[in-house]
Amino acid sequence: MNIRKALGPAMAFGRGASGDSVAAWGRDVLYALSYDRTVMYRVDRVTPGRKGDPVAFRVSDFESTDVKREGPALVFNVGDGALVRVAAPAETFEGLEALFTRFDLRGAPDAAAVMLTSKDAMLLDGDLPHVEFVARGGAFKIVQRDFYSGRTLEVERKAMSGTGSVTRPLAMRTQDFKTLFQLATSYVIKVGDGWFYADNLADVRAVVGGCLYEDVGRLNALAEEA
Amino acid sequence: METELTYWDIKEVVGRIVPRQSVLGSLSEAHRMRVRKTGRRSGPWYREYRLNPEGWQEFSRVLPDTFDNSALMVSRKACGCPLPLNLDVWDGPVCSFNCLYCFANYFRTTLYSSFFDQVQPLRTIDADAFLARLGALMDGGAQGGQSAERRALDLRVPIRIGVRFENFIPKERKVGTALRVLRFLAERGYPVIVDTKSTLVGEDEYLRALADNAGGAVVQFSLSSGDDAFLREIEPGAPLASERFEALRRLNEAGVRGVARIEPFLPFLADSEEWARNYVGRCREAGVGYVCWDAFSYSCANEHTRRLFHQRGLDFDRMFYAASDSRLATGLLLWAMMRHFRSEGLRCSTYDDTVSQYNDDVLCCQVTGAFKGGFGWNVGSSKGAEDYIRRQGGRAVSWGEFDAYVEGAGGWLSAGLRRDFWQLWNLDGDSAYSMAWSSVEPAGMGDGGMMWRAAADNRVLVDALRYVEMEAGRG
User: Fold this and answer.
1) By the 8 A CB rule, do B155 and B410 touch?
2) What is the SS3 string spanning B222-281?
3) Most buried residue among B103, B427, B430, B447 by CB atoms closer than 10 A?
4) Which of A16, A169, A171 is the closest to B307 by Cβ?
5) Nearest-CA residue of chain B relative to A60?
6) Sign of the dihedral defined by the CA atoms of residues B195, B201, B207, B208, in that order
7) Are A223 and B21 a contacting pair at CB < 8 A?
8) What CA–CA distances, in Å, run from A95 to A48, B14, B86?
């Protein structure tokens, strides 16, 4: 996958006055992390492959694939002798890789898992902020609760792989769910303890922070718990 | 509307519908990950260009150093506000209290004169000139003509200080502009309402100026929580809750009605049983008998506010969905928490139209009885309409009838307000309020458009409560 296409969903994560989405690129692997730390994905076999040291950059700063680190700055060569110099983020390729690895469920065959496609995503109501995942008794349901009108939307998939079940109710932001399908048309989605792992069984993997139904109004920082 | 469920039973069900967000990485890292750019311009924050035959031309309105002309204004939200005569004697690019959820920043750029084309430093009015003009307006002088402000003053609508900006900032202590205005109003015996987070109003000179006002004075302290540590997180520059309650105690003891404003009400962040116990206890100690409520302002549902909350580990989305975006959840949670506070002996009212039929005071700011010399209010507003229609006991009310009622009760504040409210009455126009949100229902067409009649309960709340009771039963 071309690196520009791979960065597309990360661009959609947004930027603003107080934070940016960040990406890291090393060899043929790209990691991207949303500014609010709710979604992270990894793309393998990115083209072109990076020949030099890995590099991390704010996604909105990306100008060209010809980029090098110079002290605290990144320098993008945009051609015709023009250079764009920007401040480098604190994040590193190794740091993002370590963060991703914490939540990587590729080697967890017992996790509750289901194959979902972009067609499933199209069934969802984009105006509702969350999608709840329910895995029980071999069946898998995605549920949207419409707290604007009081109705509930359910999509049920009879065949679920894996032997696990979702031990506590867990949801994903609808926006994050739809973002996944900008990179691939289908995923095996596994449910972790507080997060989701999505794998297209080829070159795209993602982890998404789950939404918990607890009596707490503070954000749940998974990495600090891990 | 009755139920055996407590606020916290209802909240548990809402919590099963609106979840809490997990984040993958440390939030302190996110806090560090600021956008850093060098060489940014240092001039005006905002530039506007307009295309004309000569090309793009920079357009700007360079405002004078003072803002006397816009200091006293009838709110552009007067369609929904019974007490819309606003006065601010201080203004600036940002208030030193730095509340994360500040809606005044947004309101000031949209509701009143736009002074953000050229950002001014912290500034105050020319008190001599302003008070001379205010005096002439009050005395029926030629200045002001038939303006809405002149009409409001004729009706003795209380002047409300502090809707657009915090007026009792540290610099006020040195300059004393607001103090001069309070003393002027006291001399005139003109009723005044102060909205503030500053404890300055509890200090002797200010306290005297308020207590000596024969027309009466009300001070509303914005207090989303009684917890000092939590307020330090969301209002980092403002006085602590304990300091504000102490100022309220002094005001109440001096005969000035001190009201606590829980605005915004913050479900999941400041709504636990312990939070309620603490708040009620502090109200009792400070002699506070009135609490005003409102949902989180929809106007500050922007990405910047969300990030400010997230950087402090606070789940903005969960709070916002439950406290503003979902009318069902917001209305029900507000209603239930107000009911709890009422059971503790506090009188409660809300600005939220969905819940306002259960208010203890027709005037949602809870000022009835506080003004000794008599006062008027803007009956040509959604609150005035809801009150009038509900007093007709189920009889349908036409626009023509309501129009005549307003004229008989002192008249409309302006022809523009009458036109805007006629549109609102007919579910038209671009007002921030809707008749359909309140506890009235359409009853056909009549003189001047739609007719309305009182509903027993707000249907939205009844349906939401029924759903919650069903879900609570499922455990």
Assistant:
1) yes
2) ECCCCCHHHHHHHCCCCCCHHHHHHHHHHHHHCCCEEEEEECCCCCCCCCCHHHHHHHHH
3) B103
4) A16
5) B35
6) negative
7) no
8) 22, 37, 53
Within B139-197, strands assigned E span 159-161, 192-196
Own/partner contacts of B247-253, CB < 8 Å, gap of 24 or more, are B247/B199, B247/B201, B247/B202, B247/B221, B248/B202, B248/B219, B248/B221, B248/B286, B248/B287, B248/B288, B249/B285, B249/B286, B249/B287, B250/B202, B250/B207, B251/B201, B251/B202, B251/B207, B251/B210, B251/B219, B252/B286, B252/B287, B252/B288, B253/B287
**Quick one: which of B229, B472, B452, B153 has its CA closest to B332?**
B472
B471: closest chain A residue by CA: A150
Distance (Å, rounded) from C-alpha A108 to C-alpha B98?
Answer: 47
Separation CA B455–CA B440 (nearest Å): 5
CA B88/CA B261 separation, integer angstroms: 19
| A130 in contact with chain B, both atoms CB, cutoff 8 A | yes
Assess A91–B contact: CB distance below 8 Å, yes or no. yes
The phi, psi pair for B404, rounded to 5°, reads -65, -35
- Pairs of CB atoms within 8 A across A/B: 155
Which residues in B lie closer than 8 A to residue A205 (C-beta atoms)?
none
| Residues in chain B closer than 8 A to A15 (CB atoms) | 35
Closest residue of chain B to A36, computed from CA coordinates = B30
Q: Is B20 on the interface with A (CB under 8 A)?
A: yes
> pTM, whole model, 2 decimals?
0.87
Instruction: State how far residue B55 is from chain A, nearest Cα, in angstroms.
Output: 29
Check: CB of residue B107 under 8 Å from CB of residue B81: no
Alpha helices in A52-200 (DSSP H): 93-103, 118-123, 174-180
The pLDDT profile of chain B, 475 residues, written as one tens digit per residue, is 889 999 999 999 999 899 998 888 765 544 444 444 444 344 455 567 888 888 888 776 555 555 566 789 898 889 999 999 999 998 877 788 989 888 776 665 554 444 444 556 788 888 999 999 899 889 876 555 678 999 999 999 999 999 888 999 999 999 999 999 999 999 999 999 999 999 999 999 999 999 999 999 999 999 999 999 999 999 999 999 999 999 999 999 999 999 999 999 999 999 999 999 999 999 999 999 999 999 998 877 877 788 888 888 899 999 999 989 998 899 999 999 999 999 999 999 999 989 999 999 999 999 999 998 889 999 999 999 999 999 999 999 999 999 999 999 999 999 999 999 999 999 998 877 888 888 899 999 999 999 999 998 888 899 889 989 988 886 4
CB contact under 8 A, A169 and B16: yes
- Name every residue whose Cβ is closer than 8 Å to that of residue B42 and which is 6 or more positions away in sequence: none
